[in-house]
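One such given next:
>
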Amino acid sequence: MERGLILIDQEHQSRKLLQEAVSLAQADDAEIIILSLVDPSTHQDDAETVKQISDIEGAHYDDQTVVQAEERALAEHVESVMSSTGVHYECLVRVVADSKRAPAVQTVSDEYNCDHLFATGRRRSPTGKAVFGDLTQRLLLNYDGFVTVLLD
């Protein structure tokens, strides 16, 4: 592995996944890209809060300011695991609707030349996957590289 892409959320399972990816990255002297996919409605709520702050302060904050704040929050979330590892990492946030999550992961992977993907997954029946869809399953089937999945 030269560069791994970790699809992370704020749940405990992602912390375990991050620790697994760090172990592999340390062994291979690899870099890590940490990606959080934010739902547009959550992003809109954050944007509205920032707009209220900008109105009070008399400043102007744009959509990129909100994404940067979300990236800082992600970096703070992973700092406890990453701080003492010596692994170079970068945190990214992408605002993506559910139906576009798998292509967004692939786009980031291509953009950063990642050769390994780390993701969490849920145990579901085949019927549940067919009816509700499953991001992890789509990534497993379509990712052009190694994939590590940590199931709950």
